Amino acid sequence: QVQLVESGGGLVQPGGSLRLSCAASGFAFSTYTMSWARQAPEKGLEWVSIINSGGGTKTYADSVKGRFTISRDNAKNMLYLQMNSLRPDDTAVYYCVKGRNRGQGTQVTVSS
Fold first, then answer.
1. Of 2, 39, 80, 111, which residue is 20 to 30 A from 21 by alpha carbon distance?
2. Burial class (CB in 10 A: 0-12, 13-18, 19+), 22
3. CB under 8 Å to 91, separation ≥6 — which residues?
4. 105: number of Cβ within 10 Å
5. Rounded distance between C-alpha atoms, residue 87 and residue 18, angstroms
6. CA 112 to CA 83: how far, in whole Å?
């Protein structure tokens, strides 16, 4: 079955950086478009970024454009999200998403 396991979250000060990772298994990772989404407290799920199967096409939400970078390593079945210049409103649980499947999430808290 599809398994998506996120890691790399934590507490960071405004302006700081984090790199999220997602270990994927149970499907042909290299053939699927993958995404990151997030859910802030008391808010709905928000799409953050998407990357095509080959990694050559990437799209970002306006709220993270220029600060976040999505990437993938198909040889390792890994998806990444490099987050720079973090802001308090980036605080959320971040999820790795394949279609209707998502992982358990990793908490990112941006606070001084």
1. 111
2. buried
3. 40, 41, 108, 109, 110, 111
4. 17
5. 12
6. 17
How far is residue 6's CA from residue 77's CA, in Å, rounded to a whole number? 12
Residue closest to 22 by CA, chosen among 32, 62, 13, 86: 32
Residue 77 confidence class, pLDDT cut points 50, 70, 90: very high
Length of the chain measured in residues: 112
CA distance 3 to 43: 25
Q: pLDDT (tens digit, 9 = 90+) per residue, 2-44?
A: 999 999 999 999 999 999 999 999 999 999 999 999 999 899 9
